[in-house]
Specification:
- This protein has helices spanning 2-29, 31-34, 38-61, 65-101, 113-134, 172-183, 201-206, 209-213, 228-232, 236-244, 272-276, 283-286, 306-311, 330-337; strands spanning 138-146, 155-161, 189-193, 222-225, 249-250, 254-258, 262-266, 296-299, 316-319, 343-347, 350-354, 372-380.
- The protein has 382 residues and is an alpha/beta fold.
- It has two domains: 2-133, no CATH class; 139-380, 4-Layer Sandwich (Purple Acid Phosphatase, chain A, domain 2), CATH 3.60.21.10.
- It has a six-stranded mixed beta sheet, covered by helices on one side. The chain has a six-stranded mixed beta sheet with strand order 6-7-8-9-11-10, with no helix packed on it.
- α1 packs across α4 (65-101), α3 (38-61) packs across α4 (65-101) and α4 crosses α5.
- The protein is elongated and about 75 Å long.
């Protein structure tokens, strides 16, 4: 517990230092405008910076419309402050290199009102684009072959989405639009691969999203697994109950044979242990009794320990979780964390598809990637 609070304290200090750095750079560049109102500037900036933290603390203690609006504003501020920090660091680095390599030429006059407003307008433009982009899901098509026979079935058309994060940001209206896009594909089967609900189940319940989710339809049905965010909210069982009300079959360390043609295996999320102390079953135990002559599709929210799927002769694993970093340059870090953070991987007969997701966590921003619906066609050949 002490180490947790220590890590939390370090994160808070880094966040505070980063925001002070941003505020100071703007103050220096726009001093002639800001200085007469310094108290309002620093006080207002501090309010912006702590909005997300206050809203998070007040989520359970002071729920309501005002707290919801604070949460939304705080999410936008997180993205804005992130890019303000990166841009100001880039400016300072260029100034340093300018002085070091070309001291006779002043390329970036500083402090400068033009520079201050340029940084402001650049980041505002990025946030506006990222918000627009986050609401425009694309259909990403894959075609692959599984070297097994599914009796009476030569091809299987799958629609797969992950990381909807239904809640304050991704609301019922967004969900309606997503469902229309999925149903328009006319898939044989639909998979929701985790983080369907964004922590707080109450928004899902209040907006009756289980009814909306129930509009998904496919001949073989709709199947889902939980993700880490259903556990982060501390109400994973309640989330599971309301997903189940959508006529969706939720798989938690279990499998089903579909029409005696193929298997769908659904793993509980690996974060279950931290949330409730229950470690998920190892995959070999989950798959006990499976006939490996039939195709096996595994749904696992987080694409960790892929060798376990290969070792247990899974044919296709479908995952999400990574968001492909959600906004650049986070993807450069995420690529080093996961064996595959987005896209398609094949290792022998074992194949993996990782979606970057269709929703957003925190800031409703996507820069450097697009929300997506996976449109997958499997051909069975032996």
């Amino acid at each position: 517990m002490n180490s947790f609070f220590m890590i939390l304290g370090i994160i808070f200090l880094l966040y505070a230092a980063g925001n002070y750095y941003i505020a100071l750079r703007f103050f220096q560049c726009l001093r002639s405008i800001i200085e007469p109102y310094s108290l309002f500037y620093w006080g207002g900036y501090t309010l912006f910076a702590v909005t997300k933290i206050v809203a998070r603390i007040g989520r359970k203690n002071f729920p309501g419309t005002f707290n919801t609006r604070m949460t939304i504003f705080g999410d936008y501020w997180l993205a804005a402050s992130y890019y303000f920090f990166l841009v100001w660091v880039a400016v300072d680095l260029l100034r340093f290199l300018n002085k070091l390599l070309l001291p006779q030429f002043l390329l970036l006059p500083y402090p400068s009102m033009v520079l201050g407003f340029s940084v402001l307008f650049l980041v505002v433009a990025l946030i506006l684009y990222g918000n627009w982009n986050a609401k425009k899901p694309r259909i990403r098509k894959y075609e692959l072959t599984v070297n097994k026979t599914a009796p009476g079935l030569s091809q299987l058309h799958i629609a797969m989405i992950s990381d909807i994060h239904l809640g304050v940001i991704v609301d019922k209206d967004r969900l309606e639009a997503i469902i229309k896009q999925i149903n328009a594909l006319h898939p044989d089967i639909i998979f929701l691969v985790g983080d369907t609900i964004d922590e707080d189940v109450k928004f899902f319940i209040e907006q009756e999203m289980s009814v909306t989710l129930g509009k998904l339809h496919a001949p073989y049905g709709v199947f889902a697994v939980l993700g880490n965010h259903e556990y982060l909210g501390g109400e994973s069982d309640l989330a599971a109950e309301h997903i189940g009300k959508s006529n969706i079959k939720l798989l938690r360390d279990e499998y089903l044979m579909i029409n005696k043609q193929f298997y769908v295996v659904g793993r509980d999320d690996r974060s279950a242990k931290k949330a409730n102390g229950k470690r998920r079953f190892p995959l070999y135990r989950v798959m006990q009794g499976i006939d490996h002559e039939l195709p096996i599709i595994l749904l696992d929210h987080q694409p960790y320990e892929l060798e376990e799927g290969q070792r247990n002769r899974v044919d296709l694993q479908l995952s999400g979780h990574t968001h492909h970093g959600q906004f650049f340059p986070n993807n450069l870090i995420i690529q080093r964390v996961f064996e595959i953070d987005w896209g398609y991987l094949r290792n022998g007969e074992y194949q993996v598809i990782v979606s970057c997701g269709i929703g957003t966590w925190g800031p409703p921003i996507r820069i450097g990637n697009h929300p997506e619906i996976i449109d997958l066609l499997i051909t069975f050949e032996k």
